[in-house]
Inverse folding.
């Protein structure tokens, strides 16, 4: 067994098992209709307001699903929101533009928009050219999208996915164009830029919770319970670890030092 | 079937990649077919994705050419920009494919110092990229102006913290409060700046990071289990 399984990764395995069990348990509980109320996410409530505003003003809606490929979970989370936005754009009769910087994202986005327009009862309004490929290069992509925003002056802009240095370039261009902006990323280093330049922001894990929040499927909503369990576990371990460390230093008791070491080992990776 | 096969691939690849870190690598003494398989999967699944992405890039390039060619033909809005895009795209593609100026043949490097492609990269692409990057300075200033307007208690706190961090990291900031006695050392701007970055700032982004990691786990499980309808298609 020692030459097959890496026993040094036991803590990683334990955490993975606990979190997976919590997510699966949440899904099961939700299927049995034992789900409590959910916290409102203002940024998601703003999706319809932004698209409605674009319809009233007769101006386009822009959706940018980040600058990473489809193998990035943030891109997938962003695209899951595209379905909602495309459905709203179809219902309100807005012109939707989805500039992408990866071909695979473009193809997936087209499929999502086609399905959303069909589900909204307006399949004839869907056109392939509403989703376009711009460039794999980060700044070439940002330059093109900025140019489009300045010329077309969208009334709503959604920046949902993985963003890097171009986040502020895109968000400020949208701001200058007078668009109502909803952004979201799990790249924490870009969050301050998005928070200052956009009207509503999905911060960190809210981006991953968004599709479950918008979907009526209890299985999806139940998975959020598992996510919450993970947060409680992290809080308990951090608080417990801090108390044990303080107790160990203040009292010098060996048992506290041992327990603190165990908590540290549980959280260590690599 | 159109949805079932991608979902199956996603589930299998997802499960295999999740299990990969728990098997000993063959180079670290892992024996038997399982360590060999998981090491192979770990190394090659991302390569397979890159191969797929290369083929998809042809689709992207074709879409770019089609969109701009149509706009030029129909003399649509801003068509001269589209013409410029077509010319630049074709020129770079031809210069790169035929390795103009660089060593010829399959072994010749596209990025050789004498190649036309390197010249374009160094003297056209990089200055354009740097120019755009430099725009960030102005955008940061305008965004900071909006964020720091004293609209609320939180905005005022943000302004005060930003002021301390900015000033505390300059020699002027250090000399400004250097007169404070050692007992009040923690009030010196440079010390305060370090404390803000190390304590409240680190606590803030670490909590966000923990939330993100949990979100990634939940999202990945939803994808592996095939219940994430929005991207995989199906009921909504």
């Amino acid at each position: 067994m020692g030459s097959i399984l890496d026993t040094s990764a036991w803590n990683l395995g334990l955490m993975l098992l606990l979190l997976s069990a919590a997510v699966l348990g949440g899904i099961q509980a939700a299927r049995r209709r034992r789900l409590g109320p959910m916290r409102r996410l203002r940024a998601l409530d703003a999706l319809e307001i932004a698209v409605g505003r674009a319809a009233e003003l007769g101006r386009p809606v822009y959706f940018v699903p980040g600058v990473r490929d489809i193998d990035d979970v943030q891109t997938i989370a962003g695209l899951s929101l595209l379905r909602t936005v495309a459905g709203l754009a179809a219902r309100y009769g807005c012109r939707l533009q989805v500039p992408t910087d990866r071909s695979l994202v473009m193809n997936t986005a087209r499929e999502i928009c086609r399905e959303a327009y069909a589900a909204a009862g307006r399949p004839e309004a869907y056109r392939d050219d509403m989703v376009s490929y711009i460039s794999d290069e980060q700044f070439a992509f940002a330059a093109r999208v900025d140019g489009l925003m300045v010329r077309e002056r969208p009334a709503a802009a959604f920046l949902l996915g993985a963003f890097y240095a171009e986040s502020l370039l895109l968000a400020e261009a949208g701001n200058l164009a007078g668009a109502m902006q909803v952004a979201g990323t799990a790249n924490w280093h870009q969050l301050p830029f998005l928070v200052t330049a956009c009207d509503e922001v999905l911060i960190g894990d809210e981006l991953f919770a968004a599709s479950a929040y918008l979907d009526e499927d209890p299985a999806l909503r139940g998975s959020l319970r598992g996510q919450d369990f993970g947060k409680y576990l992290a809080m308990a371990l951090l608080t417990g670890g801090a108390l044990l460390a303080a107790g160990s230093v203040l009292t010098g008791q060996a048992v506290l030092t041992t327990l603190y070491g165990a908590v540290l080992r549980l959280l260590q990776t690599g | 079937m159109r949805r079932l096969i991608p979902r199956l691939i996603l589930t299998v690849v997802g499960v295999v990649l999740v299990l990969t870190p728990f098997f000993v690598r063959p180079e670290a003494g892992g024996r038997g077919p399982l360590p060999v398989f998981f090491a192979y999967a770990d190394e090659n699944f991302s390569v397979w994705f890159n191969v797929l992405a290369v083929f998809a890039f042809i689709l992207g390039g074709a879409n770019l050419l089609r969109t701009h060619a149509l706009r030029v033909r129909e003399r649509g809005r801003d068509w001269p920009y589209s013409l410029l895009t077509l010319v630049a795209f074709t020129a770079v593609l031809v210069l790169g494919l035929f390795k103009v100026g660089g060593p010829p043949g399959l072994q010749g490097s596209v990025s050789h110092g004498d190649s036309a492609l390197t010249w374009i990269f160094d003297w056209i692409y990089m200055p354009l990229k740097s120019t755009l990057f430099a725009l960030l300075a102005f955008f940061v200033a305008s965004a900071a102006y909006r964020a720091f307007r004293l609209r609320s208690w939180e905005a005022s706190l943000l302004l005060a913290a930003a002021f301390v961090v900015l000033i505390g990291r300059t020699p002027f900031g250090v000399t400004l409060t250097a007169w404070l006695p050692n007992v009040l050392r923690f009030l010196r701007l440079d010390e305060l700046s370090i404390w803000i970055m190390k304590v409240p700032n680190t606590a803030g982004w670490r909590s966000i990071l923990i939330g993100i990691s949990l979100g990634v786990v939940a999202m990945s499980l939803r994808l592996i289990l095939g219940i994430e309808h929005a991207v995989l298609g199906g009921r909504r």
Remarks:
- The mean pLDDT of chain A is 91.
- Chain A touches chain B through 81 residues (CB under 8 Å).
- The first strand of chain A starts at residue 61 and ends at 64.
- DSSP finds ten helices and six strands in chain A.
